[in-house]
Fold Glyoxylase, beta-lactamase superfamily II.
Amino acid sequence: MLVVGFAAGALRANCYLLAPAPHGPCVVVDPGQDAVEPVRKALGEHDLTPEAILLTHGHHDHVDSAGALAGEHGIPVWLHPADRPLVPISTCDLSGTALGVAGLEVGVGHVPGHTPGSVVFRLDTPEGGRLVLTGDTLFAGSVGRGDQELLAGSVRDTLLPLPDDTVVLPGHGGATTIGRERRLLAGGAVAR
């Protein structure tokens, strides 16, 4: 599996391209501010063709380039319906628990708290690894802002049950693992 990530925009939001392999279809996750050119560059470097855009939530630093990229490539943008009022482009409802796209089986978990429609995307890699893209729900060493009680429940119920070796690809900052975050969050509001 190919994972390409980069930070873009004033808030340095992470954008990811996920593909079964180089030289084929991919999905683009959270193309935020100033992400059009870096996405184009990554597509060219890895000979990828985007088939869809997946949004973890509707904040501008994660969605600002989605409309331009969707229009340029004629691809759908998937977003949880609870965040539709935040996004000024046409989107498809991301309300199920799985989405098959670009040769990938993407698990979808609704994790309200940062926004009402925040979601995480889970993938198993062919190499036996596990990934979860958490947007602004879980970072290395912290959780996002928003409705803290709702967010704590979402992290506790949806993310912490994942295996320790699950790699967390957050919306800002570097990668971590569920095991590392479980230890860091132990004793806090999320661990209850």
